Amino acid sequence: MKFQLLPSAAGKQSVIQYATSLLIDDRVLIDAGTAGFYLERDQLAKITDIFISHTHMDHVASLPSLLEACLGYGLKVPTIWGSADTQKHIREFIFNNYVWPDFFEVIVNGRPVIDFQVMTDLVDIGAGDLLIKPIPVDHVISTHGFLVTSPTSTLLISSDTGPTHKIWQVANALNRLDAVILEVSFDNATDKLALAAKHLTPAMFHAEIAKITCHQPQVFAVHLKPWSRDTIIRELQSAGIPHLSIMESGKDYFLP
Question: In terms of CB atoms within 10 Å, which of 172, 195, 203, 205 comes out highest?
Fold first, then answer.
């Protein structure tokens, strides 16, 4: 399995993450915060499925541009997967003819532009040789993490969450878990803000990883707020978390 955190900043600031899009095996997107701004035609042509964890702007900002680019280039539009709440929010707040034309109602070649499929908690969805299992996590709106399983490896993605439980129950029931991508947004000094926003600090991050009792996966930290990035990295590194990496935007990672 190959995966990449797509860049959301340019030049000297390219390591900074402002938005979230994870590209897996060149054909599955987890969120569309930046993919529609970054991917070129040949890359877009390979994408078959987009899984939306939730509708905060840093996770969906480029979705309209991505769909428009697919139309403009004459590409097959990917299937979009999300919860019923996510579908409702996308219709009401993005494709509402005010923020963007209503692609749910625009018909091209006899079909609506948006093919949105409602996913069911803990039920696998096939995408080529990948299985994607949506798992509810604890954020301020309906949000899902995802377990991504290939024939040779398993990757767990938290999306945005505060302290949570179900995703670690799923993890501990697995036969194997190769890697975890876990968010950490605030430094330890702003733990009250993190709890209110339902995000993690390095201390909370460490506590969440400790809930994995049956595996010793690689651990990738993402979603670091730019203004606290250096502090968050120092606090993570001092926590003694095994197999920890700060995920780099634009870099290909491989499992196993």
Answer: 205
Structure tokens at 23: 């590209």
What DSSP letter does each residue of the chain carry, written as one string?
A: -EEEE---S-GGGTT--SS--EEETTTEEE--SSHHHH--HHHHHH--EEE-----HHHHTTHHHHHHHHHHHTPPPPEEEE-HHHHHHHHHHTSSSSSS--TTT-EETTEES--EEE--TT--EEETTEEEEEEE--SSSS-EEEEEE-SS-EEEE--S-SS-SHHHHHHHTSS---EEEEE--S-GGGHHHHHHHT---HHHHHHHHTT--S---EEEEE---GGGHHHHHHHHHHTT-TTEEEPPTT--EE--
State how far the Cα of 206 lies from the Cα of 218, in Å rounded to an integer: 13
Are 132 and 138 spatial neighbours (Cβ–Cβ below 8 Å)? Answer: no
Residue in this structure with the two tokens 């990672």, named with its chain if needed: 253
Residue 242 phi, psi (nearest 5): -65, 145
What was the pLDDT predicted at 12? 66
Does residue 156 contact residue 181 with C-beta atoms inside 8 Å? yes
154 Cα distance to chain centroid = 15
141-157 pLDDT tens trace: 999 999 999 999 999 99
Question: What pLDDT is attached to residue 193?
Answer: 97
pLDDT above 90: residue 112? no
Name the band, by pLDDT with cuts 50, 70 and 90, for residue 69.
very high
State yes or no: pLDDT of 13 exceeds 80.
no
The number of residues making up the chain comes to 256
